[in-house]
Amino acid sequence: MQYNQFGKLGNKSRLGLGTMRLPVNADGSVNEDEAIRLIRLAIDGGINYVDTAYPYHGGASEVTVGKALKDGYREKVTLTTKLPCWKVEKREDMDAILDEQLRRLDLPYVDMYLLHALDIGRYRKMRELGYKEFFESALKDGRIRHVGFSFHDGKDAFLEIIDDFDAWEMAQIQFNYLDDESQATEAGLKYAGRKNIPIVVMEPLRGGNLAALPGNVRALTEAYPVKRGAVEWAFRYVADYEEVKVILSGMSTMEQVKENLKLFEVMKPGNLSDSDRALLRDMKADFLSRQIVPCTGCEYCQPCPKGVKIPDIFSAVNQASMFERQEAFEKRYARMKEREGDASRCVHCGKCEKACPQGIPIRKFLDAVNEGRIFEAGAVK
What we know:
Elements: E1 3-5, E2 11-13, E3 15-18, H1 32-44, E4 49-51, H2 60-68, E5 78-83, H3 91-105, E6 110-118, H4 120-129, H5 131-140, E7 144-151, H6 155-164, E8 171-174, H7 185-194, E9 199-202, H8 215-223, H9 230-239, E10 244-249, H10 254-263, H11 274-289, H12 310-322, H13 326-338, H14 351-355, H15 362-370
Helix pairs in contact: 1-2, 1-10, 6-7, 8-11, 12-13, 12-15
């Protein structure tokens, strides 16, 4: 295992254990015995950073992690959990939720406490409700030891949040070789590094999508003289950045733990050569060329007068096309129908197209989605 200095926390393992995807039973509930064995196997293998959150597994993640950290394991790790900002309506809610989490974990404190899944609107709300005073109070009474945030928005929002609070001790962002120009971006990551704010990366495999490469992308790696698997390429890309201190992996099987522990024996900053980086750029370009809709997710088309969730629909289409997973689109789109945001609600008013800076013929794409032909060649001309 590789370790590096993580701010005031000391040496932390480059590989961290995310507990959003623990082993489950047939009914979807956490297989507690197996999950505890998995968590302890990871810690015994050298991982000393464990990440959980209030909503993971419907709250069962925190309970299971707490049980796994009995018998001397608590002293071996830095434990992170997160405040579910969407549940906070008043300042007192912050204390109540933290206390509930400590009861779930059966612990008197957590090492790192994050504002969870911030976008700029949620951040400004938390600021108005007094999260800074809450952090100060919880630090003083010992329920938390360090503070940070996890993030899902654009670069400008990331920079505003970083600059608005001098006491940040880490930022957790989604980052991989497909997302280095979206969300916080590579530029945001490097900015945090210049301010000495450690970065923890989530979704280095983009929810597992980068663990299995489609044909053309796989062919690029197979033709390359250095032979590495899809997972190793993805991890190496993120590990190459010295600003990244911990890379989270949501491991759900013992085999994944063992494989990742082996990979992280060599995951150091600067582990890629110039030709390696060129290959990864080519892999990214091939993935992006598979996108069907040239949508950037700017949301200028929103709100739709009829409630059509245009960016969500196009994102689902592009994800399915890039990773050759049309069945995943069908499930995701079914949920959109349940929430009454699907393409069938489009009345061709054209408001979205007038607002779209990309000039996308949105109505034609929505028709193709609604008629089930979006993945056919030449579906939109």
